[in-house]
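quick one before i forget lol
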Amino acid sequence: MRSKKLTSKINLYFTILELFKQNKTTSQISKELNISKQKLYYYTRRLRDLGFLQKKGYLVWEVLRSKKIDLEHTIIWKSKSIRGHAFIWKVKLSRIYDWKLVLDKKNIPYKLVRGCIPRIFINNKKVWLTKYSIIIYETKSFYGKDAIQSRKYAVFSLLDTLNDFSNKVGINIGRVYFKPTREHYGMIKNELARQLNDKGEKLIIRDDLDGEWFWIDDSNGMFGEMETGGKGFTKDRAGLNLEVQNWWNDMKRTDFKVTPTFLMENINKVVQVQKVEQKNKVEYSRDLVQHKEAIKTMGRNTEANTKSIELLADVVLQLKEEVKKLNDR
């Protein structure tokens, strides 16, 4: 849950952008917000560093972007773990348009890509207008606690871009279906990435289906970034990054000691213990069988001894009777 302090900061930055969009001067904004000019300068410099403001002259600022959702994920990115970027969206249209006619009618400049596909710019993003779809090249990064949240922010930005596109070309594109044809997710401030970056080394993992799906190359800095991507054939890209993120966090929790070698060694130890226990059980079972046989033999001997004693008693009794008869004579 977002803290009240963070929400207040986001609202303040958003208000400053809105006032600049109204062409108000820094002096007017300072008075309206009841903050010092030094404090306002700090905020404007912060917004400039985040890519929302551009200085045009002395105390003159131009607003580059002012969406509140952009502020939310950009200002708090340092508390996040994942940076989604390099998005390319394919937006399937519900009907076919003659884009050249549409653009010429609105006096919108365009360039033909591959000799036939009109390309325009919406919010500094390249937009290709094909016969059946719109291809949008996202320029921004989107920060989140995981790849799913990062993609959510990217979708919000896509919808804003489509809305701005509709307003610019003057048509309602109606219901659309979209999917990312490219998306990269980086685990920022990653320890392994930092180590490789310090050594000037790269790590790339690929397979025949998805191509390069895991890499560390410090192409964008971000204090060390471990990235995933691929073609998305075998697994959803955001889901893949979530699995890699969970794996990495599990490894950190065990101090990277639970390696395949560690697991195999300990599994072998368990197997050896089980073998010893099984051997002991077999020997115990054999001894138990022998013990039962001994008890049975003892039982049979006891029965025979009992009969012998009974027979001996009868003989003794007969002798006593014979002795008595002799004495009576």
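fyi The chain is about 50% helix and 20% strand.
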